Amino acid sequence: IPFSRDPDFVNRGDILDRIHVRCSEPAGRVALVGLGGVGKSQLAIECAYRVAAEQTDKWIFWIHAGTQARVEEGFRTIADAVKLPGRNQPKADIPQLVYSWLSNERNSRWVIVLDSADDSDVFYSTTGPTPKSKPLATYLPQSRNGAILVTTRNKNLARRLTGNDANILDVGPMVEADALSLLKKKLGLLDIDRATELVRVLEYVPLAISQAAGYIRARAPRSSPEKYLDEFRAGERKRIKLLGHDGGDLRRDGSASNAILTTWQISFEHICSKRPSATDLLSLMSFFDRQGISESLLKDSDEDMFEDDVAMLRDYCLVSTNEAGDVFEMHGLVQLSTRKWLEARGLQEKFKAQFVKRMAMSFPTGDYSNWLICRRLFVHVEKAMGCRPADGEMEEVWARLLYNGGWYAWSQGQYEIAERMVDKARRTREKRLGREDEASLQSVLLYASVMKARGRWKEAESLEVQVMETFKRVLGEDHPSTLTSMGNLALTYMNQGRWKEAESLEVQVMETSSRVLGKEHPWTLTSMNNLALTFWNQGRWKEAELLNVQVMETRKRVSGEEHPETLTSMNNLALTFENQGRWKEAELLNVQVMETRKRVSGEEHPETLTSMNNLALTFENQGRWKEAESLEVQVMETRKRVLGEEHPDTLNSMANLAFTWEYQGRHSDA
């Protein structure tokens, strides 16, 4: 539970009892539905703590459900909490791993809280890394040992997630008695008439009441419920303006209570008059994703000032922290209201630029070595897509951020968002730097890679030809960037089965790279490996073997026998031997690769399983069915558990096992 228990919690009728009943049922699901700020999450927090106290054998998991990235991050948190095997592998299907664990009724009982699940697309969008990708809702099990509690403003989504209207609990504003009880807990003894009038003008909304109490406490003894009411009424012109705001304005959330927005605006102005630096911090935070805002993204050199600013913002309930105190979050409507407040003062561009600059400094390239950092910060890059700065120089910084974000999204198989990010980066760089600038061309190359990942070969080819010709003309035929663009185009040809065109380019790249970079440079060896694959696909085994041996021996000497690229080379050579019927030589290499990958990467790493699969195929080709079967069963079961039952590699394993059984006469099993 990522939030501490609220000592000022007010029990609201029988809502908690009704939640408890629903969550105690096998495969129970229940949704709390209502406007933002009415206390849905507070009810869920209190419910979670009560379950934790009363049922100590039950797991409680909390998932922030505002975006797909946050839900996937929540699944990863669950995977880490229960220490699921294979979760740290680069190609691990985390939602499927978690789904399998939750569905196993031997793994204790559990409750999942899906907090702020307001967007149906987060759970039911069919877009994803492949045309067969599953919506996230399918990873929410209906097993008897679990229950799901949802907080949402979207009743239709609640209905879809819980099954029917009987599982929906409507949460509205507090009844007057509960609202007064909350205000009393926050402020102590009160004049009942003034307090009643105060909660009434605040529309009995818990968030508005809590924030008003924070405002009053901060100004005490010079403030009180009476003075707060006077100030509220003095701002009537602003309140009328907010209430009369066009509902079609996309900058304004249609489900927001206007009383909340008014209360926030009063708080902003008061904080600005007393501590401008705290207002600046709030302004900066308003551009991030509302959750997971790391203090490292916000903090400047003055530690004391930062801590005092945070203390003031927390006093006003405008931000909250995790239990460790180093990660912040804001309500989305607080952010919206803050940005509106900034816009009215002509300060929006200033803080938007600060946000973009800080994110660009913090978010690295999408290289594998940076994935942990990228995963933690990626939701904020998603927000940055809508924050194009007006300043020209900052536009270039924004483009760099989106380029790196798109690179990471591409590496994770999130091709739709990668396409949008890289396209924005590409267009911005071309406008600012020109079409022939190297940064612009690198953006085009990354965009082409995304196109290839989505199977749009012709678009990728057109872009890669364009980049290659430009690099040749601007940088010269021997420049590394030119060679990279040629290699990319060759792979595109290869994926289309255009072997001769691929071969022509690969030979050129290999020879130039050998001359310019040296025969043992990694890029040279990669080009040789690609050329060998082209030979292999044309059945030119001897030529493929010659290159494979050369690449393997060089990589052994330069990178070491256990380097992933070395093992890939050994694997390729083994495949070449197999296609020539040289089973013993293939077996020897496959065993060596498999054992090394087990030791270096772990027995459940996807590459280790591929090695085991290759060895099983070698056994098959020698008629050693029992040995092949033993490996294939192991690979299949592990892939089911690690990758999921519908992953292409899992299905491939099942097909291989069926083939083995067929040859053993086990036709029904096959």
Give an overview in words:
It comes from Rhypophila decipiens. One of its GO terms (molecular function) is hydrolase activity. The protein is mainly alpha-helical and 670 residues long. It is 63% helix and 6% strand. The chain is built from 30 helices and 8 strands. Strand 3, helix 5 and strand 4 form a beta-alpha-beta unit. The radius of gyration is 30 Å and the shape is globular. About 4% of the residues have low confidence.
Distance N to C terminus: 47 Å
Q: Which overall shape is indicated by the principal axes computed on the Cα atoms? A: globular
From the alpha carbons, calculate the radius of gyration and give it in angstroms: 30 Å
Counted beta strands:
8
GO molecular function: ADP binding; hydrolase activity
Organism: Rhypophila decipiens
Protein name: P-loop containing nucleoside triphosphate hydrolase protein
Keywords: Hydrolase
